[in-house]
Specification:
- The chain contains three helices and no strands.
- It has helices spanning 8-42, 45-76, 83-113.
Length: 114
């Protein structure tokens, strides 16, 4: 909740903090995709399946974090002039997480079909 005495700098720090949390979750997914690629090269199906499940769970966390960012920015309201920039950044990084999940799915399917 935003109080009237909050300055724009303080609000911006709050928004950056929430965006940073979102980006950390996206980075976790990208690291797991890298590990899944290693499992693909080694033809380790069990490890690849485990990593894929972790990636799917992390993708859900990213979606929740994106909604949290949107909710936080809605609460902040007109105090923060660059709200749209935060939303665009969050949506763009969420797309990266989506692409990573797609890569993981396709690699796992290739492994399954031999």
């Amino acid at each position: 909740m935003v109080f009237p005495v909050e300055t724009e700098e303080r609000v911006k720090r709050r928004a950056l903090s929430v965006c940073q949390d979102h980006l950390r979750k996206v980075m976790t997914i990208t690291r797991k995709v890298s590990q899944l690629i290693d499992s693909f090269v080694k033809d380790d199906k069990k490890s690849a399946q485990r990593l894929f499940e972790e990636i799917r769970e992390s993708e859900e966390e990213v979606d929740r974090a994106r909604r949290t960012v949107s909710q936080e920015l809605a609460e902040i309201g007109a105090i923060l002039m660059s709200r749209e920039d935060f939303l665009r950044f969050t949506n763009l990084t969420s797309e990266i997480a989506d692409f990573c999940e797609g890569i993981a799915f396709r690699l796992l399917e290739i492994m399954e079909r031999g």
